[in-house]
Amino acid sequence: MRVYNKLVRDLIPQVIENTGSKFTTRTLDPPEHLTEIKKKLFEEVQEFQVTTNHQDALEELADILELIHAALPIHEATYEDLEKRRIAKKEKRGGFEEGIFLIAVEDE
């Protein structure tokens, strides 16, 4: 038996069941769920970093976005709340579209 001990997408048990394999799962409580979301998010970001084409990059970005959606209810927030926060920060400090790379700031 192969041991995974990791957060998986909600339909993975059905996928495994359809193959005829036996498996064990449990439902995480909110603090554990958030911990595992953070671990999985780190994993997905690492996978995004090594992508070499647009298709793979979009797949990893979709996984990252799904994990963000999963984390929001744990923080008692909606995607709309997050989007408002994102827009407010962008209006105040800008986004990341222009690719500005800060090299140094001279101390006074």
TrEMBL record:
InterPro entries: MSMEG_1276-like_NTP-PPase_dom. Keywords: Hydrolase. CDD domains: NTP-PPase_COG4997. GO terms for molecular function: hydrolase activity. This is Phosphoribosyl-ATP pyrophosphohydrolase. It comes from Psychrobacillus soli.
